[in-house]
Structures are given as C-alpha cells and as structure tokens.
Specification:
The chain is mainly alpha-helical. Helices cover about 80% and strands about 0% of the residues. The radius of gyration is 27 Å and the shape is elongated. The C terminus is likely disordered.
C-alpha cells in the first residue's frame, strides 16, 4: 500500500471537510444539480476523448496509485544475480520452475528455459515493454484530461446558474438555488481536479516510469544470463540502475573488503 497517496488524498479531504463543518452546515455544500453537471459532464467529455477500453482501463489503473508491488532495484538485482547463479549451476531449464512476482520477468525466464535466441528474447520483451508502457500511459492521460475538463465544467455550471438567476430576478425564491448552482459547480470542478484527478494522474506517470525502468533492468539481466555472463559481472552491470549515492557506497565497501583481504 502506498501510504503517501492514501495520506495525501485523505488528508486533503479531511481538511476541506473540517473547514466546511466548522464554518456552517455541510448540507449547504450539497447540490445535486451541480454534482450531476460537473461529475457527469466531466466523465462524458473525457469519454469522448478516448476509447471505451482506455476509459475503463484508466479506472482500473487508478488502483496502482494506492497499491504497487514492484520490488526495489536492489532487491531485484539480488534476485537476478541468484537466478544467474542457478542458470550457470543447473542450466537454463531450472529457471522455468523459479517463482517470481512479476509476470514480465516470468515470461522472460520461460523464454530462457525454452531456448529462445538472445535476439528473439530482446525483440519480444521490448515489444511487451512498449505495450505495457502504452497501456499505462492511457491511464495517466485519462486522469490528466479529467483534471483539465472538470474545472471547465464547473465554469459552465457557474454560467448556467448565473443565467438562471438573472432570468428569475422577479422571484426571490429562485435566486438562492440558482446562485448555489453557480458557486458550487466551480467548487466541485476545482476539488475534482485538484484533489483527485491531477494527483492520481501524476502518481500514475510516476508508476509508469518506475515500471519501465524495472523492465529495462530485467531485459538487460535476461540477455546477460542468456550470454552466460558471470553473476558478479551481471551484478556490477546492473548497479548502473541504482542511484549514484548507493553505487558509491557499494564501491567503497568493496574497496574496503579488498583492502582487508590484501
């Protein structure tokens, strides 16, 4: 569970809710007409921009903002080094029975066990990586579009409310509801964009980049294992994916160990 996403969204909602409760009755901020116009209108406009498949996938992908199970780069490197040792000791066929959490990596290990050539492995895994990237991009694009559309729909609701108010100036009982629609639709649009759509879109972009980077690491490792690279050479090759400060720490530890051995 990604606590940053959960705490951020819930914290923002709590603060807004507290300011509403402390100021006046929460019922004042509830307007069915405004909600219908902004929420429903925004979703329909976004749907018009994408296919139904992309639209549905985006809301499934939103769960990735809260729950994401990619291993850390260091953990993945350690796992891949162990897989490399198994391949050298027991042969490629032994990789077929190894349990890994990623379907992407599992597919690559299956190809190694089946004896695919390095070129074929690289070509197929790169295609898989690009298709995954494309699917993930769709989720971020849908929520980015929702973040752009909802404030505009809020402004449309404001204009509708103002027109209704001005057209009924002779009946004071109708001015209040029309003014409520005019003001609350702007609030609804701003809240959807600022507190839901934009944060989710940004987090999905972050997730997409993390997964793409991890898949690149896995492809490099699979090709190195296919080329029968020494596990220690593989480990050194993959450390390029670590942040520079972690690489330098590992390098200093290795130099210290080498000095003690000498």
């Amino acid at each position: 569970m990604d606590l940053a996403t959960l705490i951020g969204l819930v914290g923002a909602a709590v603060l807004v809710g507290a300011s509403v409760i402390m100021g006046t009755s929460p019922e004042v901020f509830m307007n069915a007409t405004g909600l219908l116009l902004v929420v429903g209108g925004s979703l329909f406009v976004v749907l018009a921009k994408f296919s139904i498949t992309q639209f549905k996938f985006a809301f499934k992908a939103a769960a990735r903002a809260f729950k994401f199970q990619l291993p850390s780069i260091q953990e993945s490197i350690e796992e891949l080094v162990e897989l490399s040792k198994i391949a050298r000791r027991e042969g490629m066929i032994a990789l077929e029975s190894r349990e890994v959490n990623s379907p992407f990596l599992k597919k690559g290990l299956q190809m190694l066990a089946d004896g695919f050539s390095a070129d074929m492995i690289k070509e197929m895994m790169e295609k898989e990586r690009l298709l995954t990237l494309e699917r993930n991009e769709a989720g971020g694009q849908v929520f980015s579009a929702l973040g752009e559309v909802s404030p505009a729909m809020g402004m449309i609701g404001t204009l509708v409310g103002l027109v209704q108010m001005l057209s009924n100036m002779g009946d004071p009982s109708l001015i209040g509801p029309a003014m409520a629609v005019a003001l609350l639709t702007t609030l609804y649009g701003a809240m959807i964009a600022t507190m839901i759509a934009t944060p989710l879109a940004d987090k999905l972009w972050v997730r997409m980049r993390q997964e793409a980077k991890m898949q690149e690491l896995w492809i490099d490792a699979l090709l190195a294992i296919k080329g029968d690279k020494n596990p220690r050479v593989l480990e050194q090759m993959l450390t390029i994916y670590l942040p520079p400060e972690h690489r330098s720490e590992e390098g200093s530890e290795e130099r210290t160990a080498a000095g003690k051995q000498g």
